[in-house]
Design a protein that fits this description.
Radius of gyration: 21 Å
Strand order of the largest sheet: 1-2-4-3-5-6-11-12
Structural class: alpha/beta
Number of helices: 14
Shape: globular
Number of strands: 12
Distance between the termini: 56 Å
Strand content: 15-25%
């Protein structure tokens, strides 16, 4: 242990009050509605635009939007901007009792399509969707629903990070599913209908429950890494995120419980939304699927189960990254695994979009 670094860290934590740089990357609101606000991040000074399609970050429900911008030095937003990317994010904000009637189709049929078209209109280009957790389900279903409606969206690709498709492969909820089948979910239904939402404290508690072993050993981990400023900053930033979780609108929570957890419909290829079946096979753009090797919310097998369902995609890439549910997106090791994989996929699909279809064109000659 480096005693000088340890003393400096303890001093800064006691006197300054924090180690993590939680400043958010500067951004401007583009358009807003009661359901969400679209933000565009400001380009970094001294970084030349890289070209390529803009990136729209799609958060899940429950987690605050700054999951993508966790802290300076470990922020996917900051990384994308350093690559010269144009970056947007849709922020749903906290949900209240008044939002209780919103369903998954509110995102799939309204909010996300409108947002994607707005970004495409602003940039005069197609859009890369980068989505985490439940946001990945929303993004994939949004693209598929638009194809089904014969009104395809200007989407170039989808990256689904830590997105579980086969809920039967999630050990955390395995004991609940048989009970839900027996009761038909009536007990849970009566609770969320009465309350109107799945409250934010419950969401935070549920996330912490998935890492109860780490909570127990956390003091020991901090003591053993007291000289590792980056590690301590990451722990602090994750704690900050956990204390700012959002609730779920009652209807969305009900759909997640009945369609995903109880019936596991998505594992069979799609969901029934708004009176029609939305199938993952209708996703007709390239897809990057990333699974966390230590993720208990979206285990590797639950995430990988979605790959063979994407039969309409011209290319599906599957990769794994060390870390848990948040770590696969913005953990310290994600900087060397998830992010470079994402960079390569976006660059390849931008290049493919710019390649002339004419076989006698420059690209054909280059490959000869």
């Amino acid at each position: 242990m480096d005693l000088v670094d340890a003393v400096a860290n303890v001093w800064d934590r006691a006197v300054v009050g924090h180690l993590a740089d939680l400043r958010r990357m500067p951004r401007d609101a583009v358009v807003g509605s009661p359901q969400g606000i679209l933000f565009r991040y400001r380009p970094l000074s001294g970084v030349d635009p890289a070209g390529g399609a803009p990136v729209l970050l799609v958060p899940p429900l429950g987690a605050p939007d700054f999951a993508y911008d966790l802290r300076r030095g470990c922020s996917l937003v900051e990384h994308l901007l350093q690559q010269g990317r144009t970056v947007y994010l849709i922020d749903y904000g906290p949900k209240s009792f008044s939002d209780r009637t919103l369903g998954i189709e509110s995102w799939v049929d309204e909010l996300l399509p409108d947002t994607i078209r707005r970004v495409a209109e602003e940039t005069d280009d197609e859009v890369h969707l980068v989505a985490w957790s439940l946001g990945g389900i929303f993004a994939l279903l949004t693209v598929a629903a638009a194809v089904q409606a014969r009104d395809p969206l200007p989407v170039r690709s989808v990256a689904a990070i830590g997105t579980p498709v086969d809920i039967s492969r999630v050990p955390l909820v395995a004991p609940i599913r048989p009970l839900a089948q027996i009761t038909g979910g009536r007990l849970i239904s009566s609770i969320y209908r009465g309350v109107g939402s799945f409250p934010a404290p419950m969401v935070s508690w549920a996330f912490q429950l998935t890492a109860v072993d780490k909570l127990v050993t956390k003091p020991l981990a901090i003591a053993s890494r007291i000289d590792d400023r980056d590690c301590l900053a990451q722990i602090e930033a994750v704690d900050h995120l956990m204390s700012n979780m959002h609730g779920y609108p009652g209807r969305v929570f009900g759909q997640i419980f009945h369609l995903l957890l109880r019936s596991n419909d998505l594992a069979n290829g799609g969901l029934r939304l708004g009176g029609r079946d939305v199938e993952l096979s209708d996703v007709g753009v390239p897809v990057l699927v990333v699974a966390g090797r230590d993720d208990v919310i979206a285990p590797l097998r639950a995430v990988r189960a979605g790959v063979p369902l994407l039969t309409g995609s011209p290319e599906v890439r599957f990769t794994t990254s060390p870390g848990g549910h948040l770590g696969v997106l913005t953990g310290r090791r994600a900087r060397d695994t998830t992010w470079p994989e994402l960079d390569r996929a976006l660059a390849d699909w931008d290049a493919a979009a710019d390649t002339p279809d004419d076989a006698d064109g420059p690209s054909a000659a280059a490959g000869a």
